[in-house]
Structure to design on (702 residues):
């Protein structure tokens, strides 16, 4: 894969992919934690940025942009599922 | 207590530093013997522990811990920027510091 | 990983330098604000009860129909009382000499809060907060990647070779500032992100609180405000409540008094506790009925998760533990700022030694832009204090002028960095920064400041600020001297060093 495209792919993975993973993970945590709602929001918020940092590192440590995306999506998908299914009705 | 903490931190970091070959050489132009190295490391641990105690005495458990990390950082930085210019001075400060600090406690 | 650290560091480094520097200055926000209001330097201290009584008299006179009154009580840092009130949706502020009850005409200024504002939002509201957040994530990644690529992190723990030329001295300095204060850097970066999660990671709020941070807050902070009754009723004198409040909050622990709907039957008098003696940024509070004097309630216990979050906020705001703690934060913050600055300079130094013969246009541009990103930003920060004293106190809109003039100052720095002879850019700009710092005490004394006022015992905070500026000026002058070395010699020796370094690293 041409170097510039690979770089671009990694940047997108780090930023958008990382954000998506963080959002989904944080939301899932907030939903699943067996604590009152305010507590769940605070606790999940405090942990949230660890996966983001790791996602950014992964986006550049992975062997290719493609691999970076695959792993990030694989981690995001189950969380996104939980979030979508568990989203409280209005 | 605050000054004591800083003096202990500096001394502890200095002991840790002079236990290393590279920096021991800066002082005595030879590598430290095994026993000397161990002694310095023990002194370093003691110094850092005393610094932690000083911080906790002044601030309590939680704030004291935060302050301790800060003092280690600043003690280390002071040492690192002093070392290339005046290794002997750094060593003397590391020796005199805890003695002064001990009197501060009383 | 090395690529991420180098290029992530460069891409975000310019922004992060400014964010880190203004953040470091924010530790002393209140002292800077005090310095920037020289009209307050000669005010003497009185008891809190007296201050409250006089403040109330002034408030009844100036804003009898306000929706809220706030009295920020005098403390060790500020002998004047700050009065605020909200009327018709807008907030007004007055400063009062607590000893006489007279309002003090103070120049309009954002004070130290400018540094706070710039630090977390680049003075650009929500968009700015997002940008800072992105830079902070990059900072976190850059820190972590820096740890990963630092192969000999323990062996090089105390290494600093200032006489080595080219990149080695800068690399050592960069590593020292980074590694020795690493717990601080990681903590400050992560906690910074966690503070404003409601803005850029709001999923929890969206799930359970209709994306309202206020709704979440109302779950954990007890509100004693009551809906307006619309019936006028005489407000009881506030000062006698201080003693009752202190019974709950602690002797001398009250920091702020708030009155909701003074003059109405629903009036509430609320006392807030100081929180500079704990890490968590939460203020215990106690409330009384403003008309009958009845006890309405108090909050001294907090939801544990909220408390944990406010502990992270408190760790970042650094307004606890007294002056010594804040000095620790300030110095570690300077180390972090120096880490970023030295990293930017290192980028250029490394490229110069690698392509020793001919520096590319890119490298030369980066080298020049570094100057305005570092020296230019420092100049702007000090210039802010200069404008505070040079602009007339009565100038309309001076608050905006003080801040607004900083952009042209920085643009001049940028222009100078781009067009001036390359070996003069650093020494001249750092030299100017040094001069502005060194001359600050003179400016202070000459323009109405009273750093050694008889009103404050010992060395007041304004005097300490002047001394700190002096110290920074000296440091800047030293660095300016160091950076004024002729390029050619450094490049040749640097190239030889680079080859030696490469052989060592293999």
């Amino acid at each position: 894969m041409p170097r510039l495209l690979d770089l671009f792919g990694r940047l997108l993975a780090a930023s958008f992919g990382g954000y998506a993973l963080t959002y989904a993970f944080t939301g899932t945590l907030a939903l699943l934690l067996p604590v009152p709602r305010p507590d769940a929001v605070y606790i999940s918020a405090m942990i949230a940025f660890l996966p983001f940092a790791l996602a950014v590192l992964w986006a550049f440590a992975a062997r290719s942009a493609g691999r970076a995306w695959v792993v990030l999506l694989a981690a995001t998908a189950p969380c996104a599922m939980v979030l979508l299914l568990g989203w409280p009705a209005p | 207590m605050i000054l004591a903490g800083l003096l202990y931190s500096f001394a502890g970091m200095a002991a840790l530093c002079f236990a290393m070959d590279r920096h021991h050489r800066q002082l005595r132009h030879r590598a430290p013997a095994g026993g000397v190295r161990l002694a310095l490391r023990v002194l370093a641990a003691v110094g850092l522990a005393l610094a932690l105690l000083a911080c906790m005495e002044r601030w309590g458990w939680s704030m004291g811990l935060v302050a301790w990390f800060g003092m280690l950082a600043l003690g280390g930085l002071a040492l690192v920027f002093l070392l290339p210019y005046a290794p002997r001075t750094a060593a003397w400060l590391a020796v005199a510091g805890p003695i002064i600090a001990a009197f501060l406690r009383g | 990983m090395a690529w991420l650290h180098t290029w992530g560091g460069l891409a975000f480094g310019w922004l992060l330098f400014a964010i880190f520097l203004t953040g470091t200055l924010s530790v002393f926000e209140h002292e800077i604000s005090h310095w920037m209001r020289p009209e307050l330097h000669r005010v003497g201290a009185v008891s809190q009860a007296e201050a409250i009584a006089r403040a109330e008299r002034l408030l009844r006179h100036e804003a009898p129909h306000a929706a809220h009154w706030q009295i920020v009580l005098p403390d060790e840092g500020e002998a004047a009382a700050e009065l605020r009130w909200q009327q018709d949706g807008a907030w007004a502020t007055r400063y009062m000499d607590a000893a006489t009850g007279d309002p003090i005409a103070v120049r309009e200024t954002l004070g130290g809060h400018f540094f706070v504002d710039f630090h977390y939002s680049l003075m650009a509201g929500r968009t700015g907060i997002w940008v800072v957040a992105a830079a902070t994530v990059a900072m976190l990644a850059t820190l972590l990647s820096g740890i990963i690529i630092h192969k000999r992190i323990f062996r090089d723990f105390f290494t600093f070779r200032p006489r080595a030329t080219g990149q080695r001295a800068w690399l050592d300095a960069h590593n020292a500032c980074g590694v020795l204060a690493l717990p601080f850097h990681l903590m400050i970066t992560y906690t910074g992100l966690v503070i404003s999660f409601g803005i850029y990671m709001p999923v929890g709020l969206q799930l359970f609180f209709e994306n309202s941070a206020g709704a979440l807050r109302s779950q954990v902070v007890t509100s004693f405000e009551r809906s307006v009754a619309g019936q006028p009723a005489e407000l009881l004198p506030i000062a006698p409540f201080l003693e009752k409040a202190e019974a709950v909050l602690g002797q001398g622990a009250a920091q702020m008094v708030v009155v909701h709907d003074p003059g109405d039957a629903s009036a509430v008098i609320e006392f807030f506790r100081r929180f500079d003696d704990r890490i968590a940024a939460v203020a215990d509070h106690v409330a009384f009925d403003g008309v009958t004097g009845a006890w309405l309630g108090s909050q001294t216990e907090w939801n544990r998760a909220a408390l944990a979050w406010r502990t992270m906020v408190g760790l970042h705001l650094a307004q606890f533990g007294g002056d010594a703690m804040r000095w620790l934060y300030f110095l570690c913050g300077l180390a972090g700022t120096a880490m970023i600055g030295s990293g930017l300079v290192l980028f250029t130094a490394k490229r110069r030694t690698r392509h020793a013969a001919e520096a590319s246009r890119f490298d030369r541009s980066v080298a020049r832009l570094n100057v305005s990103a570092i020296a230019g930003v420092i100049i702007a920060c000090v210039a802010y204090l200069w404008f505070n004293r040079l602009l007339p106190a009565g100038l309309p809109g001076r608050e905006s002028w003080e801040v607004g003039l900083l952009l042209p100052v920085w643009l001049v720095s940028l222009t100078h960095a781009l067009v001036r002879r390359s070996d003069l850019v650093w020494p001249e700009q750092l030299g100017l920064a040094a001069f502005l710092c060194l001359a600050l005490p003179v400016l202070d004394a000459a323009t109405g400041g009273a750093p050694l006022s008889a009103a404050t015992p010992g060395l007041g905070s304004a005097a300490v600020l002047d001394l700190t500026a002096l110290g920074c000026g000296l440091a800047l002058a030293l660095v300016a001297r160091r950076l004024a070395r002729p390029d050619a010699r450094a490049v040749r020796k640097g190239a030889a060093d680079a080859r030696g370094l490469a052989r060592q690293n293999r």
Observations:
- Helices of chain A lie at 3-32, 37-47, 49-61, 65-86.
